[in-house]
Amino acid sequence: MIDHRRLGRELELFVSDPLVGAGLPIWLPAGAAARHAVEEYVRDLERRAGYRHVYSPPLGKRELFELSGHLGYFAADMFPPMRLSADDEFVLRPALCPHHALVFRARGRSYRELPLRIAEIGGMYRAERSGVLGGLSRVRAISLNDAHNFCALDQVGEEVREILRLIGEAHAALGVRPAGFRLSLRGPGEKYVGDDAQWARAEELLRAALDGVAYTEAPGEAAFYGPKIDIQVVDAAGRESTISTVQLDFDKPERFDLSYTAADGSRQRPVMVHRSLVGSMERLFAYLIEVHQGAFPVWYAPVQLVLLPVDDGQAAAAEALARRAGAAGLRVEVDHGGSLGARVRDAARRRIPYAGVIGAREAAAGAVALRLRDGRSLPPMPADEALALLDRMVTTHSAALLP
Ligand SMILES: [Zn+2]
Where is the Aminoacyl-transfer RNA synthetases class-II family profile domain (predicted)? Predict the structure, then answer.
């Protein structure tokens, strides 16, 4: 069976160490390179869609999480507070919403600024029991692709539809294949804030945004502050998890007393839409490693091109081409050691999309012969042409190795 933990070890993507602790993986250079490419892509996609990015610290004073409701409704999933002195206690945040509410509140807001979309790939912490932790799929330190879109009530429908469109675009680029959409609703019990009218209105808005989309309903899966649309994936072991989510929240704007000045000069309360296009980097990569069996699309492959001089006579030509490819933004290596056949096999084992073979004839002609990781080979081509081909596959976020 494909297991992201085994592939993560073999491909040197991440490692866990008992000295750090369970659920606290370290991203190794190859995994970090892939994640960095994905983070850049997501930030760029968001920026083009009108999001504004912030940085906020992954902890805050106890009072912040009392105000947000997390300590009242979510404490069982949080690390215990850290006490510096009798009146100075800090909490590792279990979500980014409280900090982003303070971004909205940092100054007066006008209706002209709405929807105000505050985004961050930010750190947060969950006190998961050690028995459920494994690789990247369940962790205690989480880097979430998150945003909070502050809207007027009549903007919510369009905003949610646009978020669903962005989620579809990101999934296509990454190779995420959703197993289904889920409308997560309130269940029985006292673990929810807000009144019935708020919940009914939020549910109605989400149902309207899902018009034309097939979805299932899941009572009891809502956030404590509101219903949500969850986009589910299934891992290699058949376990379902949420990778993307859109949540409506009338409660936090009240708790934080958020308001904006409407066109008629009155003070109005915004609605807060919590959304994640691709979820946490950890869960996303647990899924991507398995669904691609480690063979990521070219644009986020840790190494995109390895150059293989046939013998020492072509070493200088290979190094020169590697410098050009690196300057063009590609992640490139030169592999000098061992027989050519062994190096080609090693490149395929590492799921490197392209191996560029340079023999005496190619070196003399300024050419390279590409071998693809799926076993196909291309005839020698000018180095410029090869670099242009790779650039095209990267910039179009193609899932294929050839146009
Ligand atoms: Zn949130």
Answer: 29-297
